[in-house]
Design goal:
Helix content: 40-55%
Bound molecules: manganese (II) ion
Strand order of the largest sheet: 1-2-3-4-6-8-9-10
Radius of gyration: 22 Å
Strand content: 5-15%
Length: 433
């Protein structure tokens, strides 16, 4: 194997030197302003340094729509190359050591070797993801009309076994969670018996749950439409919550920001799941019309802040069963996936730090006194602070880049990868879940 190009620590340090003086000036200035409000910038920087979000293995490839996929240059062609890209993201932003695998797309020939390959890059494996929403070559039975909820018990069994295989592989790789999203549902009224389909789902999930190790968690991801356009079996957080309760204490509800009807109050969904002790975590992304195609914080940054406001509130209250797993899940159609993932990771830390700026005593007082104007003002005061100097300082202290995208571009990483990774003919598109 020829030597693969990597962005070196020296290069990052050299690039950081260019912006260091301005960063320090801005950081001091912001520190003074926050101090006036009783906040210590060093505490906030510590928070930023401790923030973690996992990257999806499938996110480093270019996504597509059902109409077309326009591949980018130097796309990863296998799990090792995907991990190289994940390692590059981690090196620059320092918040993303976890990688979430999708099986069978990322199924390794040698799991010990893959685990070592990841560890060598400072990476570990986050939640496993099963795939019963498409047929794989050589698969005996088709998922065209469903998987865990299929009317044929043999198809359901095949789907259950695939999930158990994902868990077994995840144990070898050091993962501690398994995420299940199914594409099951109906395109036409009358196609599916709603109650029977959900009953079959629970029966199948009970078999998967039974195979879950004691220290693992099972994440249920809901999605209100697509690929089924009329009805999906796990369509919203309410159904997800019912199933998580039925399954047991190791089952939780995962919130993908894109998988809600327009204008749903997602921060309230989050608060409900926190209150019920059933919040699994997130697939972060953003959307204008539907689904999960855009970078986190690109359309509704205030919504992202309001979600983190609920999360930080729960964190500060030290609530039981509150240990959310954060993951990105986006499709990149027109951007370099590495740049998009770095930008999204940055937006999450931004929202997290901003949520720590909320004056919670003043907010509670406004709520108690029924003063909605001041309550909103409390949130807006935090949301409108530009915390970029904190984010830059946190990355620099962790050995990352002050400006990850600029450093990435200056390194010519993508050009190097385009040479190292000539496109394979007929390579499959990365999916998005
Ligand atoms: Mn998702």
């Amino acid at each position: 194997m020829t030597t693969q190009f990597e962005i070196s620590d020296d290069f990052i340090a050299h690039e950081n030197d260019k912006g260091k003086a301005w960063l320090e000036e801005d950081y001091d200035e912001l520190g003074k302003r926050l101090r006036r409000r009783g906040l210590f910038i060093e505490d906030l920087t510590q928070k930023a340094q401790s923030f973690r979000v996992a990257v999806p293995s499938w996110g480093v490839g270019t996504g597509g729509t059902r109409f077309a996929r326009f591949p980018g240059q130097g796309e990863p062609r296998n799990i090792h190359e995907k991990l190289e890209d994940c390692g590059t993201i981690f090196k620059l932003v320092r918040t993303t050591p976890g990688v979430s695998l999708h099986i069978p797309w990322d199924k390794p020939e040698d799991h010990a070797e893959l685990r070592q390959f990841a560890n060598d890059r400072g990476l570990h494996f986050d939640a496993m993801n099963s795939n019963t929403f498409q047929d794989q070559s050589g698969q005996p039975l088709s998922y065209k009309f469903g998987s865990l909820t299929h009317t044929d018990p043999a198809v359901r069994q095949q789907a259950v076994e695939h999930n158990l295989e994902c868990i077994a592989l995840g144990q070898q790789l050091g993962s501690k969670a398994h995420t299940v999203w199914i594409g099951d549902g109906g395109n036409f009224p009358g196609q599916q018996n709603f109650r029977q389909a959900l009953k079959r789902y629970l029966e199948s999930m009970q078999e998967i749950y039974a195979g879950l190790p004691d220290d693992w968690r099972l994440f249920i991801e809901h999605k209100f439409y697509e690929p089924a356009f009329y009805s999906t079996v796990i369509n919203d957080w309410g159904v997800s919550y019912h199933c998580a309760r039925e399954l047991g204490p190791k089952a939780f509800c995962l919130v993908d920001l894109g998988h809600h009807a327009p204008n749903v109050n997602i921060e309230m969904v989050v608060a409900r799941l926190i209150q019920f002790g059933k919040l699994a975590g997130f697939h972060f992304n953003d959307s204008k019309y539907g689904d999960d195609d855009l970078d986190a914080g690109s359309i509704k940054p205030f919504q992202l802040f309001l979600i983190f406001n609920e999360l930080v509130d729960a964190e500060l209250e030290k609530l039981d069963n509150f240990d959310p797993a954060y993951m990105l899940d986006q499709s990149h159609n027109v951007t370099d996936p590495i740049e998009s993932l770095m930008s999204s990771a940055n937006e999450l830390v931004r929202a997290y730090v901003q949520a720590h700026l909320v004056n919670r005593e003043a907010l509670t007082e406004s709520q108690e006194k029924n003063d909605p104007l001041m309550a909103l003002a409390c949130l807006k005061q935090a949301f409108t602070v530009d915390v970029s100097p904190i984010l830059g300082m946190a990355r620099q202290r962790e050995g990352g880049a002050i400006d990850p995208v600029a450093t990435y571009r200056a390194s010519n990483y993508r050009r190097h990868k385009a040479e190292e990774r000539p496109a394979k003919k007929g390579a499959a598109a990365s999916g998005i879940v």
